[in-house]
Design a protein that fits this description.
It contains 19 helices and 24 strands. Helix content is about 25%, strand content about 20%. Strands 17, 18, 19, 20, 21, 22, 23 and 24 form an eight-stranded antiparallel sheet that branches. Strands 5, 10, 13, 14, 15 and 16 form a six-stranded antiparallel sheet that branches. By secondary structure, the chain is of the alpha+beta class. Helix 10 crosses helix 14.
């Protein structure tokens, strides 16, 4: 009989004798509730989640995981799996026995072998194979949390953006005229598009880019014009011009013909108020990346791809850092030897390794597909304790199912995935102040610019509210997988919108590792806050949807971000996973990413996301979101619709590999008998300190 939380039986009590049995069966550490390490290991990125688990187990390899699963089956405990702790639903800490995979963190990169294939995981050394016995676990959880904190710093994405987000305060000016030219000077004249001067606007005292002190109130207006390095902040194009029409002009004058590896956009300010700086002007935002590397934009990779093997305990940023620090040989165009970093197509930071089983759409997705599309092999522990190597030739039915719904079928302990040479990307942000009167025009411009964009171009537009005392912003992000020379053309099109002054343009050549931090940097997200996410896949973006979106966003509370990401490209090339073709052929993936402080119960933090996704976007939606975007208290029908026509086959495979629903602490919305299980009954509870009620969802 099912328990209220969807279990096979009522939870058992972990007695001292059972604890001793568990400890003696594995090499890894075990931390019981009440141990400080238990608290540290069960902390989730989403502060709205509270575990009711009894013990945390930190296995060292697949054999340990197998023993834990057998123990759970023998004594009727419910297992859950934590591989980073970024999932907002909280399934990772929803079990009686929490399996934390952080100790399975080996990594390796290899070029294709002579047969143009890879070394199977079964032929590689087991995880932690050099370790013997248990090591003391004193403060192990604290060290893990401190490592998490270090990974959640995103300043390296752009020092310029970091300084900008620290500085400006809310502007009280009314929205500017919609048709105001980006390059219009104060006297109404027009600057030359090739002019390398930067227009002075009102001054604010400067702060060090590394300072934590917010700057005083920002100037009344801001502007970024073209710079000596070729960054484009304005355009002389007609208002109704074809955004890509100038691509036929092979003598486009904005490109300076040289490469620059620093952020070059600047905002200069003239004097402001009675207490202004008498110096007249100063550079308020001008920084270089935190770490400057020589970016090998003139190298040619020897291998079209490589293979990266990594343990399931590695967080995505750790994998990106590993591959960036272990480049493979390449050739310089001058004929010499060089190296080039390879990267697995991941979502942007932060994320855990389970993104490899749930979708994974990021900056490389339009060029190479989702993360699940670049998976080539998995080491997985099944519900009966068996350890399998799963790939396209072995257990093909499970291979199809685990790429999209993997956590419901087993515990992945090691992955092998394709990685691709990414010597440089031309990427960054165009930042504008959000005004209800002009935001729709900018979104429509963005939509029209990226129509028929090449696969090398990733682009999104997001609306982000607050934080308190700060202006809401509209941010256009682009990432061209290639050099500045070509990417400049797409930047020019996106930057040609003239409805408002561009507050900041920091698009430039940078390493892909730094670019991976860019979304998190703009979101200004913090661990421990309450998070609520809703997402959808849409087939079109008509004007009326855009206008309704802007009007509704204007009423969102601080901490809300709404995102439109250009999808398509290589995503639609793959058909051999449980994510259906109907979901892959959509135009945009859309997400509401809401965060707010603990102790605040503002229903709008939940209802505005639900209303936008479920109501406003309903006419253009198809199915549910990519599985990686399924959030807390998601309706079972939305989970099922993420798999579309593949759902029935997915259920049949579940019966084969997990007939008793051992892996129920996952996105799987059914119990062992195949009955619908409401999300609120198979997710961990909300802590009382959160102050948030999800009753508004139950009323809908």
């Amino acid at each position: 009989m099912c328990s209220p939380r969807g279990s096979l039986t009522e939870p058992s009590l972990l007695t001292e004798g059972l604890l001793d049995e568990l400890v003696s069966s594995i090499r890894g550490q075990v931390y019981q509730k009440g141990d400080p390490n238990f608290v540290e290991y069960t902390i989730m990125f989403n502060g709205n989640v509270e575990t009711i688990g009894q013990v945390v187990v930190c296995p060292l390899d697949a054999e340990d995981v197998s023993e834990i699963i057998l123990f759970c089956r023998k004594h009727a405990f419910s297992p859950s799996v934590k591989a980073g702790g970024f999932g907002t639903a909280g399934w990772a800490v929803g079990g009686d026995i929490i399996i934390d995979l952080s100790k399975i963190a080996d990594a390796d990169i290899e070029p294709p072998n002579e047969e143009s294939t890879f070394t199977s995981i079964r032929d590689m050394a087991p995880s932690n194979s050099k370790g013997k016995g248990k090591k003391p676990g004193v403060n192990a959880g604290k060290r893990r949390r401190e490592d998490d904190d270090k990974l959640r710093t995103y300043q390296a994405a752009s020092g310029t953006v970091a300084a900008f987000l620290r500085g400006p305060s809310r502007s009280d000016l009314p929205p500017p005229n919609l048709r105001r030219r980006l390059n219009e000077s104060a006297d109404g004249s027009h600057a030359n598009a090739s002019d390398t001067s930067v227009q002075l606007v009102q001054n604010i005292p400067t702060t060090s880019p590394g300072s934590d002190v917010d700057a005083p109130n920002v100037a009344r207006r801001s502007n970024v014009e073209s710079t000596p390095d070729g960054n484009i902040g304005s355009s002389n194009a007609p208002f109704n011009a074809d955004p890509f029409g100038y691509l036929e002009d092979h003598n486009h004058s904005s490109y300076s013909g040289r490469s620059n590896f620093q952020s070059t956009s600047r905002t200069l300010y003239g004097s402001w108020g009675s207490g202004s700086n008498s110096a007249g002007s100063s550079v308020a935002i001008t920084t270089a990346p935190t770490v400057l590397h020589s970016i090998p934009s003139q190298t040619r990779a020897i291998h079209t791809h490589a293979y990266v093997t990594f343990g399931a305990g590695m967080r995505q940023k750790e994998i990106d850092t590993f591959t960036a620090n272990n480049p493979l040989r390449a050739r310089s165009i001058s004929g010499g030897q060089d190296t080039v970093p390879y990267h697995v197509p991941f979502a942007a930071h932060p994320a855990g390794s389970s993104i490899m089983l749930l979708g994974g759409f990021g900056f490389l997705g339009r060029l190479y597909g989702l993360s699940i599309d670049n998976l080539v092999e998995v080491e997985m522990v099944l519900a009966d304790g068996r350890i399998l190597i799963v790939n396209e030739n072995e257990h093909s039915d499970l291979w199809w199912a685990l790429r999209g719904a993997g956590p419901a079928f087993g515990i992945a302990t090691r992955y092998k995935a394709k990685a691709f040479p990414i010597p440089v990307v031309f990427a960054g942000n165009l930042i504008y102040r959000f005004h209800k009167a002009t935001a729709a025009s900018l979104i429509k411009h963005f939509r029209d610019c990226i129509k028929n964009a090449p696969r090398e171009l990733y682009a999104n537009v997001l609306l982000t509210a607050g934080p308190a005392g700060k202006d809401s912003l509209v941010v256009v992000q682009m990432c061209y997988v290639g050099s500045r020379e070509k990417g400049q053309e797409y930047l020019a099109a996106l930057a040609s919108w003239d409805g408002e002054k561009c507050l900041l343009n920091e698009v430039n050549e940078k390493s892909f590792l730094h670019q991976q931090d860019s979304v998190a940097q703009v979101l200004r997200g913090k661990a421990g806050r309450q998070w609520f996410i809703r997402s959808a896949l849409i087939t079109s973006l008509p004007d009326d949807i855009i206008h309704q979106t802007v009007l509704k966003f204007d009423d969102t509370p601080i901490g809300c971000t709404w995102l439109f990401e250009l999808a398509g490209g290589a995503i639609s090339d793959f058909e051999d996973t449980c994510v259906p073709k109907s979901q892959r052929e959509t135009l945009f993936t859309v997400a509401a990413l809401h965060q707010w402080d603990m102790g605040i119960n503002d229903p709008r933090c939940i209802t505005t996301a639900e209303d936008w996704i479920a109501d406003t976007l309903k006419p253009v939606q198809t199915g549910g979101p990519f599985p990686s975007f399924l959030g807390r208290h998601e309706a079972p029908s939305r989970t099922i619709s993420s798999f579309g026509s593949n759902w029935d086959r997915l259920k049949e495979i579940k019966k084969i590999y997990d007939p008793t629903n051992v892996f129920r602490n996952s996105l799987w919305p059914l119990d062992a008998e195949g009955n619908i299980v409401e999300a609120s009954t198979h997710e961990p509870p909300t802590p009382s300190a959160a102050g948030t009620s999800f009753e508004v969802l139950l009323k809908e």
